[in-house]
Amino acid sequence: MKKTISILTAVTILGLTAACSGGGNANNGAGAGNTANDAPSNTSADNKPSGAPKKVELKIFLGGLDRFREQFDGYFEKFAEKEKAEKNIEVTFNSEYPGADNAPQILKTRLATGDVPDVFSLHAGNDMPTFYKAGYLTDLSDQPLAGKLIDGIKDLVSMDGKVVAVPMESLSWGYLYNKKIFADLGITPPNTLTEMKAVVQKLKDNKVTPFLLSYKESWIPQLFLPLTVGGLVNSSHPDFLDKMNSDQGSFADIKEMFDIIDLVNANGTDRAFEKGNDDGAADFANGKAAMWVQGTWDADSILKMNDKAEFGVAPLPINDDPASLRINVSVSTALSVPPTSKNKEVAIDLLNFILDDQASNDLYQSLKFNPVSKNHTFKPYPWVEDAAVYVNKGQSYRDPAIPSAVKDESGKALQSYFDKKLSKEDVIKQLDKTWKEANAAAAK
């Protein structure tokens, strides 16, 4: 999601599929249960490390997580200490943190060409089905980490009943709102589009800009897609995804998705194309606008800019149908190990350490992520509790399964739509075309 939400392109999907069509499925989970035999023993008879340490360099690819570099690098060093003490393996790290816009294409190209990292991040909702089919995900079901996952989270990182990734960002999101501004003006999160229009007007009457716009990075306007589609397929258009996946549907069927997009675009901050995620987080943290269509993955960035910022999360109203008002629940960023990793034993040790019973509490809390392990004891953050109110009432949905190519195209198309270079009809045509192309690529 960053980020995950995270946002993917499909530029190299055809190459990926072709590269893996000669039996890639047979590699799913290959060797995952036999990692203890992958390397020569480096312990003495009493099971203590002995002799010269074995040296291993792990290639780590964490796309879209550059804002958390300090936390991850520090945690990796803790793992290195543990691996040295327990297995006499001296681990160093070659870590990359490419931006969210470029990371998916870079990763797919590397996997397709054999330049395989030992551990990589992926979007659990967008990427897992394709990567699993291509044979790029190790079966982790017999690892200690699998038994620790909260049941609802475990399903989101599993394929065919196999755990194939470690969840990092477990999300319940919609849009962010400034709690102080809302409280000062006596505003509560609106339940319908009509109520949202009234909120917008009240904010403007009080000289407050309703929405923060930060469209420099295409993955940010792309966020409208899962929020609008998710609300509509769980209310008035339950067959939309099935129709699109069978080349029988069109975004014209849910053209009402533009109603909330138009409202936001017409009542936002200036210089939208000069503001990326970091600038947006700074502006929102400092009260430049009352609302931001953005996920809770930006909590850490916001609080780094202003540790006194008070913000909440609420579902985005897309029409006046109460059934459409729902929180998006997903796992965006997850970590996986490819079966072809040259250091698979150590890489899987690292994934297990990501959910270490003690150390992972501090890691996830420092990242401002939700608990994902049964052994996570830290108190959820206020914005998590905000979302839980809706989730506990049944007002939520699992992040819709939209092809990553369509999500990527929607971000670019909505940038052009905001800039008046594309009409609604143009956006619809481009999204329909991209979805059909994704269907064709997946069928090969």
Automatic annotation (TrEMBL):
Subcellular location(s): the record lists: Cell envelope
- Primary location class: other
Region: Disordered, residue numbers: 31-52
- UniProt KW keywords: Signal, Transport
Query: Which Gene3D superfamilies is this protein grouped with?
Result: Periplasmic binding protein-like II
Task: Locate the compositionally biased regions of type Polar residues.
Answer: 38-47
Q: Which Pfam families match?
A: SBP_bac_1 (PF01547)
Record's signal peptide: 1-26
InterPro entries documented for this protein:
Bact_solute-bd_prot1, SBP
Kindly give the PANTHER family that the UniProt entry links to this protein. Answer: ARABINOSE-BINDING PROTEIN-RELATED, BINDING PROTEIN COMPONENT OF ABC SUGAR TRANSPORTER-RELATED
What family does the database annotate?
A: Belongs to the bacterial solute-binding protein 1 family.
The record's function comment reads: Part of a binding-protein-dependent transport system for a sugar.
* Record-given protein name: Probable sugar-binding periplasmic protein
